[in-house]
Design goal:
The chain is built from 13 helices and 19 strands. With 402 residues, the chain is an alpha/beta fold. The strands form five sheets. The protein has an eight-stranded mixed sheet, with helices on both faces. Strands 2-1-3-4-5 form a five-stranded parallel sheet, with helices on both faces. Ligand PMT binds next to helix 9, helix 11 and strand 16.
């Protein structure tokens, strides 16, 4: 959920500030881009050098650097708008009170007040401070503003006392944020089936009939669905790429028959299915058990038709399910794609061409036309398959009532 997200980490003056270094590491590991802002008091607990080394970004704590001869300043509004989310951890009792009252006396508070993104806060203080009614009041007020409270944990405190108030462990904070983002995501609670890559139809133990699909388009779609919070199953043929999200349930297949079995099994429990794989239409009827030797004569292979997986799912599709297929067409593209949409009972056909430059098999880019049931056609111009996958998924999400 944090992959590619811009996270602004606000660190305030608590002994727990040293743990901010671990928060940065976990955020970076989760794929986020991180900028850190310290309050002036936080600098007594953790050095900007440590945090800038880990975050790979300059660490900020003041509007103006008096030593900067060019008079540049850190624009709190730009920083607030840059962030996809703000995480204030540790958040001291003093900072909670300022956030609740709108006291804007340092850079972090200026950014907090200017931001439009979600703000998470993880308090850290001694147990009596944590129990104090004013702390409870401030936390409740911040929640009423829409800020998201990451509860403190119980344990040994810096004072030597034992109880609640300890900042949640860095790993738990990052898990909390990921989990929260997931629950907010548009496809949370939905199951998405994607297929990708080629199929290999064996001729003998060392040869096969295949095609040039790399799997990039389908894998990008599976990742985009995962980033939208869906539970994703990816039936993946023997291409050259694998998804970069651990949460995706990858089922490796080799042949069209294996792909068919996985899709048939998974489709009934799926809300959305997107079939981007390039499935061989034919397979050798009787693959040789041993490597076929040269004989000096012609070799004739008898082929039989593979099941049309998309059409099979289209027949079983319920009204609540959304089925999208791809079409790879060389002539009368739109007309043929629309025929496929109707014949295979799909809700959407994503039409692409193997002959245009930068589109189709193997490329990192693609250009498509989305053909929907309501006669509408929408062109998505040439772009990276990952960006394109997000746009295709946006289209699907806006076409269904979630
Ligand atoms: O993997 P990449 O290198 O990134 O390339 C992406 C891609 C070009 C493979 C992809 O964008 C694409 O076009 N996939 C579908 C290719 C294809 O087989 O098109 P088709 O027009 O032959 O098939 C139409 C639809 O029926 C497709 O959804 C296909 O998955 C499905 N089909 C086809 C044959 C079959 N036996 N069963 C099927 O389900």
């Amino acid at each position: 959920m944090l992959s590619g997200k811009k996270v602004l980490l606000g660190v305030t003056g608590s002994i727990a500030a040293y743990k901010a270094t671990y928060i940065v590491r976990h955020l970076i590991k989760a794929g986020a881009e991180v900028k850190v802002i310290l309050t002036p008091a936080a600098r007594d607990f953790v050095t900007p050098l440590t945090l800038s080394t880990l975050s790979k970004n300059p660490v900020l704590w003041e509007y103006f650097d008096p030593k900067d001869e060019e008079g540049k300043w850190n624009n709190h509004v730009d920083l607030g708008l840059w962030a996809d989310l703000i995480l204030i951890a540790p958040a001291t009792s003093n900072t909670l009170s300022k956030m609740a009252a709108g006291t804007c006396d340092n850079l972090l508070m200026g950014v907090y007040m200017s931001a439009k993104c979600p703000v998470y806060f993880a308090p850290a203080m001694d147990l009596d401070m944590y129990r104090h009614p004013s702390t409870h009041g401030n936390i409740a007020k911040l929640q009423s503003y829409g800020n998201i409270f990451i509860p403190s944990e119980s344990g040994e405190l810096a004072s030597g006392l034992v109880g609640e108030g300890r900042m949640a462990e860095p790993e738990n904070i990052v898990d909390f944020v990921q989990d929260h983002l997931k629950k907010q995501a548009r496809l949370y609670g939905k199951k998405v089936l994607v297929n990708a890559g080629p199929t290999h139809e064996p001729i003998d133990p060392v040869r096969f009939i295949g095609n040039h699909s790399s799997g990039k388009m389908g894998v990008a779609l599976a990742e985009a669905a995962c980033d939208e919070g869906a539970e994703v199953t990816l039936a993946l043929g023997p291409g050259s790429v694998r998804p970069g999200r651990e949460e995706i349930n990858v089922i490796d297949i080799t042949t069209a028959l294996e792909m068919n079995e996985v899709c048939e099994n998974e489709f009934p429990s799926s809300d959305i299915a997107i079939l981007a794989a390039a499935i061989a239409d034919y397979r050798p009827l009787d693959p040789a058990g041993e490597k076929i030797k040269k004989s000096g004569n012609k070799l004739v292979l008898e082929l039989v038709e593979n099941p049309d997986i998309l059409a099979g799912l289209g027949q079983k599709k319920s009204e609540k399910q959304f089925l999208a297929g791809f079409a790879l067409e060389t002539n009368n593209a739109v007309e043929n794609a629309r025929k496929k949409l109707n014949k295979k009972n799909c809700d959407l056909i994503v039409l692409n061409s193997p002959s245009d430059k930068g589109t189709g098999f193997g490329y990192d880019t693609n250009e498509v036309i989305l053909i929907s049931r309501n006669e509408s056609e929408r062109k998505l111009s040439l772009k990276n398959k990952k960006e394109l996958a997000k746009e295709i998924l946006d289209h699907i999400i806006s076409s269904i009532s979630l």
